[in-house]
Amino acid sequence: MIRSFLISPLGHAACFLAVVVSALSVVKETHQTRMLFATLQVQESERWQLQEDYSRLVLEYSTLSAPHRVSAISRTSLTMTSPDTGAIRVVIE
Q1: CA 19 – CA 25 distance, rounded (Å)
Q2: Angle at 36 between CA 30 and CA 38, to 5 degrees
Q3: 45-53 LR contacts (CB < 8 Å, sep 24+)
Q4: How many CA atoms lie within 13 A of 37 on its CB side?
Q5: From the CB of residue 74, how many other CB atoms can be counted at a distance below 10 Å?
Q6: 17 with 24: CB under 8 angstroms?
Q7: Cα–Cα distance, 37 to 45 (Å, whole number)
Q8: How far, in Å, are 17, 24, 26, 62 from residue 30 at the CA level?
Q9: pTM score
Q10: How many CA atoms lie within 13 A of 61 on its CB side?
Q11: CA pair distance 54, 45, nearest whole angstrom
Q12: What are the DSSP calls for 7-23, one per residue?
């Protein structure tokens, strides 16, 4: 039954249609895979750029918040001084 169907012109047309549909599906999936891979590469590039920016910001923050720098700025710009040891009071809760 199946053998006679495949030998008939209708069977040939059905096989040809199945091959064409399969080939078009392969082309569509290949294109979609390439588009997704291109999107992945763009996002990875953006992630690396953001990681570099974050690293620079962490370094800048640690530089700007260094205790000796804060102390120097407080003395020069704000004219702050350390309190006398006799003026320090310890509060116990």
Answers
A1: 10
A2: 105
A3: none
A4: 6
A5: 13
A6: no
A7: 12
A8: 20, 10, 6, 48
A9: 0.57
A10: 6
A11: 14
A12: HSHHHHHHHHHHHHHHH
Token pair for 54: 């974050």
* Residue 51: predicted pLDDT: 98
**What is the chain's length?**
93
Could you give the CA distance from residue 71 to residue 89 in angstroms, rounded to a whole number? 21
- Domain-by-domain residue ranges, the chain? 2-77
- What tens digit of pLDDT does each residue of 21-74 get? 999 999 999 999 999 999 999 999 999 999 999 999 999 999 999 999 988 999
Exposed, middle or buried, 11 (CB in 10 Å: 0-12/13-18/19+)? middle
Residue with tokens 């096989």: 15
Query: Distance between CA 45 and CA 21 in Å, rounded?
Result: 36
> Locate tokens 């047309």: which residue?
13
CA distance 23 to 88: 84
